[in-house]
């Protein structure tokens, strides 16, 4: 590999910063199908908490009419996202933004859709509230806020694996854990719940739509 090729793949530091998340490889295709029915055909999608960047690459490649804006508060994650992006060469994939869902203001003014995968249960509740606040500020009427991950639901038995996962998360950090979907919906001021899509491995894709201002 000549220096130019190495720089293109590994960046200025010459180190491969790409991260790999096994869950991303498992859920990306079912999630893509759910997104096809939720996202607009064109416009800008902000992905909050993009992690390794593998989802961003997959979705940007499959949905070329959309401009994909990944983000993450973690510097290493952003380096991974940008390393994957350099390798892909996708013209509709932007560089990762430093964005903390719980913080404000966010480093962009508008989006046509927002996606957040597997963040809400691995973050304090303040991150969920910040995500909803940011989505209210950035999205126009009818625009989707799409959430993916495991949830607790009233009247629906929780899978044993999800209960064990919840206990594991709370053992790591008492502020983490699976959220009650009804509590998230109640906090989603300015949004209406469009639909909930059952996903593999006891996960859900939850689609909210921004309501017109009253």
Task: Explain how this protein is built.
This is DUF938 domain-containing protein. It holds the Pfam family DUF938. InterPro entries: DUF938 (IPR010342), SAM-dependent_MTases_sf (IPR029063). The chain has 214 residues and is an alpha/beta fold. It has a single domain, classed as Rossmann fold (3-Layer(aba) Sandwich), CATH 3.40.50. Helices cover 37% and strands 22% of the residues. The protein is built from 7 helices and 9 strands, in the order H-H-E-H-E-H-E-E-H-E-E-H-E-H-E-E. The chain has helices at 3-10, 22-36, 54-62, 75-88, 125-138, 160-172, 181-187, and strands spanning 43-48, 66-72, 97-98, 113-117, 144-149, 151-152, 179-180, 191-199, 203-210. The strands form 2 sheets. Strands 3-2-1-4-5-9-8 form a 7-stranded mixed beta sheet, with helices on both faces. Helix 2 packs parallel to helix 3. The longest helix is centred in the N-terminal third of the chain and has 15 residues, at 22-36. It is globular.
List keywords for this structure.
single chain; 214 residues; Rossmann fold; 7-stranded mixed β-sheet; 7 helices
- Count of individual beta strands: 9
Mean pLDDT figure: 93
Shape: globular
From the N-terminal CA to the C-terminal CA, the straight-line distance is 59 Å
Number of helices: 7
Listing every helix as H and every strand as E from the N terminus to the C terminus, the arrangement reads HHEHEHEEHEEHEHEE
Please outline the major beta sheet: 7 strands, mixed
Radius of gyration: 17 Å
CATH level-3 fold name? Rossmann fold
CATH class identity: Alpha Beta
Helix content: 25-40%
Contiguous uncertain segments of 5+ residues = 1-11
Output the strand order for the largest sheet: 3-2-1-4-5-9-8
Number of domains: 1
Secondary-structure content class? alpha/beta
CATH superfamily descriptor: Vaccinia Virus protein VP39
Named CATH architecture = 3-Layer(aba) Sandwich
The fraction of residues in strands falls at 15-25%
